[in-house]
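Readers outside the structure-tokenisation community will struggle with the description of the input data as it stands. I therefore recommend that a typical entry be quoted early in the introduction. An entry of this sort, consisting of the sequence and the corresponding backbone structure tokens, reads as follows:
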Amino acid sequence: MIELRNVSVSFQQKGKEIRAVEAVDINIEKGDIYGIVGYSGAGKSTLVRVMNLLQKPTEGEVIINRTNLGELSPKALRKERKTIGMIFQHFNLMESRTIFDNVDFSLKYTGKSKQERCQKVNELLELVGLADKANAYPKQLSGGQKQRVAIARALANEPKVLLCDEATSALDPKTTQQILTLLKKLNRTLGLTIVLITHEMQVVKEICNKVAVMEKGKIIEKGSSIQIFSDPKEELTKDFIRTATHIDQALERIQEHSAFAHQLENKWLVELSYVGNRTNEPLIAHLYSKYQVTANILYGNVEFLQETPLGSLVVTLSGETHQRQKALDYLIGQGVIVHILKKDEKNSQIRVIEGGK
């Protein structure tokens, strides 16, 4: 559906060459909701603009539906762009036009009759839940409603791809969730392929089946959402994920709260992560029956990515030292990812000192 081959984008700034995107290879399949995540300045927005050639790459190829966009004439490129919708962080609505007219504007040069356009606009507003706002003006709408108008407008020409550049960044958490639910609905009912640019891993976790992580113009890690969330390789990816899963916040509270102080004395503090059916298995209970190791759960969480459960636990382990190690070896053998956060019984400070898989 969307293929980027060795794409790079360079700019000249004050006599220096700035590499905004460098040697990016991505393959996005039909029906994917593909997240591209990274901090500000990572090159995400430049990369998404390359996908419809609003930004021409300095090097590389952009292929949509087996068509190389770089080989098209200006007229053919304009036609191809109609198959690619785009929404932005700040909606870009025309304040002097009604909601109906904002959506209708996208149909102005399609050759449709006035009646056909009217029917299409009403269908789109119904689809995004704004049928009753056709005669309203943008200033009368909430941020979430404005983004729904922008989505309706982007869908006017029945695109096969929808590019979303930080589309939820200006919205509150509740409204963000509503927009993500709408995008999932459009993906499912229209077969729409969605590319989502964001700096929020929480957004990726909610909606994306695949994800790529960008840093300094490069893709440093990519894969299925389950793969990335359950077993990230790069430190930046781990940082994003720990922010989204709130593990670091939990550890900070455990470290600072006096109620946990006695529970950390002479014990190992361990973080466990596991995926799929293992979330249903009584692995913790087995530690005592098999190795006489007591596990006290300080924090636990189960989330679902693409209908697959991912579990996280922070536990203390007590028992004979060699039995604790056997217990961890058993967990690792069961496919649990193990990070020992405190192993030095004389020091209660939480620190990652070893990991295993």
User: Anything to note?
Assistant: The longest strand covers residues 16-28.
